[in-house]
Amino acid sequence: MECRSFCLLKMSQPIVVSSPGKLILGGEHAVVYGKRALVTSIGLRLYMQLIVNAEKMNQQSIDIHFQDTNRKETIDIELVNESYPIEIQAIVFIYKHFQINRSAQLTIRSDIPIGAGLGSSAAFSVCLVGCFYLWQNEKIDPDEINQLAYQVECLFHGTPSGIDNTISTYGQSLVYSRQLRQHMEFHLKNLAIIDTGIPKSTKRMVELVRLFVEANRDEAEAILNEIEKCVETMIAHPEEMKDTFRRNQDLLKQLGVSNDAIDHILAKLTEQNLSGKITGAGGGGCLIALIDSLTKEQVLEILKGNSIKEIYFVECGVEGLRQEETFP
Length: 328
Ligand code: MEV
Prior knowledge:
By secondary structure, the protein is an alpha+beta fold. About 40% of the residues lie in helices and about 25% in strands. The protein is globular and about 65 Å long.
């Protein structure tokens, strides 16, 4: 009896979690093929709040509120099928996984720009699992949450490497491969994120690379090995980062994930003896750049006339998934 009243009380309390976005410094795409990549979490977070209705048993519905766009939906769990948006399918997948038979409210807010290569979908997946996990468990178990968040990421991206959910769960900076998760201390000065504002699809870019790899086995293997060498150089010789960014970018271009708009932005940076590369899937989204001691305004001036939506300076190597006191 005592346990029952405790459980009911717990269920009706809001559960709030947050997890960070990420920057892949080197090794994106190659990491899908088992190579090592270097990734860091960033000080932009996604927040999620779950309230499970303690009273209404056997009502399988969720009220979802995406605060950034003020999109509100009420979902009847039994009616959701493959025609629904992936994020709704993901929520239902996790709701069913945890065998919840009550109505719930989910509120989501993201400081991470959506679909820009900064890991917004992974932070969504990790927070989603984190919320429901905490509904049934006393505290966060990162290993269990990360494994399940990977399954959610598969709904979004097909067969991802797992790098995005892993960094969002554990935070800090990591050398990551499908076999390895090695914590790293990493400090890069003067790193800017340049959001091109060009829409991109990670799933499509990963598929594009897969077609290239299947059609050009030997050439692709050589490129992927060279990308991994860039990652090794980034770790062993951070002082050579500008050159290493350029080399990694050149290899990403050979894989087919750059485009004219990105090439043009990066050429402008090179003209000024600065250096940049794609971060994440490519095809649009965000670039990263080493901009010496230039200000945002000076970089914008250099890139005038190019497709630039925003330039961010962010803290790197931040905390991973965590429980929050309140929803901000
Ligand atoms: C996406 O953030 C990184 C890619 O390497 C895909 C993946 O690792 O799953 C492009």
